[in-house]
Amino acid sequence: MSLTAPVWDEIPTQCRQIPLREPPSEGCETHALSYHAYKLRHGESLFRGWNSIWAFRLVTWGTSNFKFKTAHKKPFQDPIYSQFSLAPWIVHLIAMSKSSLLPVSIAFASALVLLIGRFLRKRPSFPLPPGPKGFPIVGNLRDVQPGEHTGDKRWERFARWSRDYNSPDAVSVEVLGERIIILNSKKAVIDILEKRSGKYADRPEMRMANDLSGWKWNFAHMQHSDLWRLHRKTFHQHFQPRMMPEYYAILKAATQIMIRKFATSPDDFLDHVREQAGSIVLKIVYGYNLQTANDPYIQLANNAIEALIETTVPGTFLVDFLPVLKYVPSWFPGAGFKRRAKVWKKYSEELRDLPWEWLMKSMTQGAVEPSFVSKNLEKLSSSVEGEDRKAMEEVIRNCAGISYVAGADTTVSAILSFILHMIHHPEIQSRAQSEVESLGRLPELSDKGKLPFTEAVIAETLRCNPVTPLALPHAAMEDDVYEGMWIPKRSTIVANIWAILHDEKLYSDPMTFNPDRFLKKDGSEMFPLHPETFAFGFGRRRCPGRYLALNSIWIAVTYILATFTITGPEEEEIVTYHDGLVSHPYPFKCRFIPRSGLGLIPA
Ligand code: HEM
């Protein structure tokens, strides 16, 4: 078919009625299609005129096909209708082959085909978990947007749906044909993610995080596979409970530095908490000692973490539901996500590569302290060579990079929440201070278990403000049925940790900060479940860094209590929390008034 401009006047009158609503009538196809192709090639917008009409026709054709198939149990074979529905669309694409809109056009066409496919999927007779009704095509896109846009946090909204739809265990929504199932009860997470963990150990594809923002190497995002298992095993060997005593000295040293900095520059306390968490992991993983006040490696984690927080909770980025959007050029209006992803990708690569390169260089100079990386490299005996060695080195490098970023922000959030609760509950602070003081010296990690009230304060902090309120999403590896509700294969499964830790059947008066709930008052009373049971996720993907995290938090909390009284600023501040993977409080002010110091702060 020629794509030169047909002269309008030369097109027979009956063919000028370009088939905006009907297929071209007999004899007019060439005129109609070539004229339209010509117009497109000369820059007519994809979303205007013909294209959108043919896009619409494509959808209606898909729907008719589906209806026909359902009614007659055989494929829809109206040659004229299907031929004329698809042919012009293909011509459009060819016509645009020299146009810069081609990728957009392909993305749009594939999106439509994908959507139709998703809507035509067969459904078994079980109902899906209930949930809010969505809009056509986009479904519940708006319902899963972060709270910053809608005024409430996602975990609170999701918990409310369980009440609204009278389904305490699970609710669900659909976004652009993708199913998200939210588990809101202890029963559901245990039954599904723990007892059936083999079926739910996968992750959703996380296109924004992995494909665009460069986090593919992060094993927390990997699909359930041998490669993931190898990463997890390598990681676990160095972060299991029996390894913890080896790190006690590192934890203590980093926390002492933080305490001294609280005394000398209290206004920068947020930075000091970040430095404590970052320096612990850098030392354990790479044997690296912080060099300067604003160490560049701490900055690496700060840069990289934003991407992880923003991209891993389902609902934040459309591309997670419509993968073809990956191909939209970054200059295209509305493609801001591509521009952000480009910056995040650079940060993710720097985080993984720069400390590693520093260590490799130091090793050649023979000046390294033992660390996760150096010990693992030593273990790779000289018999592992060539490609195998390269692959194993990559696993070690990935595990090191992820422990650094996973460990940095999470413990920071818990320590900051503790500080906030102490500001608001001075009587609880003073009870915990007396308990710590009763040791008569600075606490040691071997004192764990000897400070029941202080440990109850930590537990209540993790309960009231779970660090990762929606955990990391899992994915269903096969179709399943739970309590008469259908869970389709590849659904994203979100465990609402916040909802469980605020369930009044488990924790009475759940919105009140009350550490006493974790203290046994008499022999008959049962403890409520420790928040640790839920706060670190579930099943085969449960957080493997939790022992280190709990030790870091314990030492930071007990040292702070031993050394300072924390108070708020004179004018009361309302502090809000971020709605992302890690929910940390937004910056706030506080004052550290030195107490006995137990030798930590120089007189
Ligand atoms: C208070 C601190 C922390 C909290 C609340 C926390 C929470 C979580 C949660 C909820 C998950 C997802 C579990 C699931 O999918 O069900 C997770 C995964 C993970 N965490 Fe943590 N974490 C913390 C600290 C740490 C630390 C210090 C490290 C490393 C040193 C770490 C390393 C990891 C890794 C590697 C994964 C991925 C596991 C996998 O997918 O197999 N975390 N964490």
Automatic annotation (TrEMBL):
Keyword Phosphoprotein in record: no
Gene3D superfamilies: Cytochrome P450
Pathway(s) this gene product operates in, as recorded in its UniProt entry: Secondary metabolite biosynthesis
Domain of life assignment: Eukaryota
Residue positions binding heme: C543
Keywords assigned by UniProt, alphabetized: Heme, Iron, Metal-binding, Monooxygenase, Oxidoreductase
Cofactor: heme
Molecular-function annotations in GO: heme binding; iron ion binding; monooxygenase activity; oxidoreductase activity, acting on paired donors, with incorporation or reduction of molecular oxygen
Classification via InterPro entries: Cyt_P450, Cyt_P450_CS, Cyt_P450_E_grp-I, Cyt_P450_sf, Cytochrome_P450_fung
Family of the protein in this entry: Belongs to the cytochrome P450 family.
PANTHER family found in the cross-reference section: P450, PUTATIVE (EUROFUNG)-RELATED, P450, PUTATIVE (EUROFUNG)-RELATED-RELATED
Name this protein carries in UniProt: Cytochrome P450
Species whose genome carries this gene: Marasmius oreades (fairy-ring Marasmius)
